[in-house]
Amino acid sequence: MSIAPSPSVVAIVPCHNEEAAIGKVVSDLHRHVPAAEVYVYDNCSTDRTAEVARQAGAHVRVENEKGKGNVVRRAFADLDADVYLLIDGDDTYDTADAPMMVETLLSGPYDHVLGVRRQVTSSAYRTGHESGNRLFNGIVSFAFRREVTDMLSGYRVFSRRFVKSFPALSREFEIETELTIHAVNARVPQVEVPVGFRDRAEGTESKLRTYHDGFRILRILSQLLFLERPLLVNGLLSLLLGATALILGLPVVWNFVQTGLVPRLPTALLAAALMILAGVFLVLGVVLNGLVMSRRETSRLFYLRLNPPPFRSAPSGTSAEGPGGAVGGTDTAPAEDGSHNRTTAGKAR
């Protein structure tokens, strides 16, 4: 009886000026996930990041368009494997959790495993980042009716069919927002697991800018909400305009009923205009929602054409959430298209 080959794994490590940390990250990945091919994407670094990564045993590639989103888009297009591990090159995530995340994906099988950050050191989160993350988590959970615990985490594991069906439109740090919304909106089988999170390596500096990046994330989140949930967004605008029209117009109507006169004509015209706009936004939301449903059907059919992750039965005594003890999960069906599992040899095109 032939033995199925082991799933191929690639680790994608985006880097910008991480000379002090990247060597340890690559070495730790080789130690904890020896089967993985480690690809470091040097993103406009001005230090020895690429040289140090190469000396540590990584495949080094260069992405000249600055921004983490550009790196992820390039890597997802270039690399072909069964399992994709995405981790930052600043050594803030505990690479010892990587094997558990890969096993969780394969034992589901899942298409997306999200590493929910648990602080190993009290100062791992910068001021404002934790509260901002909580706010964005709440917005996404409300809008898409799926509980999201850490949507800005950069530590994730994906299946091939998730990667090859992900459009990757973002350019910078908002890529995590796009990944999260793609996962919850497409309703792919996914799960969250806790991972260690610590301070940056000594001598390195964070590339995140709290307010600048926060506004960028808020902007891309607003755009994605409008594109993916148009009925919700336009419905809320319609409700707001309609309520304002009623507040302004009801006293005018009441006055007209009592006296037969319209003493506040400008207010009456404004109320009528706002009510018309409310109707326009509502109709627009319904029309756009129909287009979104059609696009989702096409995207879903493309997703189902791709093979599911190679299934690996969970060890006896292990909970259904996965070997690492998942903190949340959805859609655990092994193969939604009914196709047989297939492993492909990992390769870089």
UniProtKB/TrEMBL annotation:
Transmembrane segments: 231-257, 269-292
Organism domain of life: Bacteria
CDD domains: DPM_DPG-synthase_like
Residue ranges, annotated region (Disordered): 310-349
Pfam families, alphabetized: Glycos_transf_2
Entries under InterPro entries matching the protein: Glyco_trans_2-like, Glycosyltransferase_2, Nucleotide-diphossugar_trans
Example GO molecular function: transferase activity
Keyword set includes Transferase: yes
Residue ranges annotated for the Glycosyltransferase 2-like domain, each copy included: 12-164
Sorted UniProt keywords: Membrane, Transferase, Transmembrane, Transmembrane helix
Keyword Cytoplasm belongs to the record: no
Family annotation (SUPFAM superfamilies): Nucleotide-diphospho-sugar transferases (SSF53448)
Record-stated family: Belongs to the glycosyltransferase 2 family.
Protein name as annotated: Glycosyltransferase involved in cell wall bisynthesis
Annotated organism of origin: Kocuria marina subsp. indica
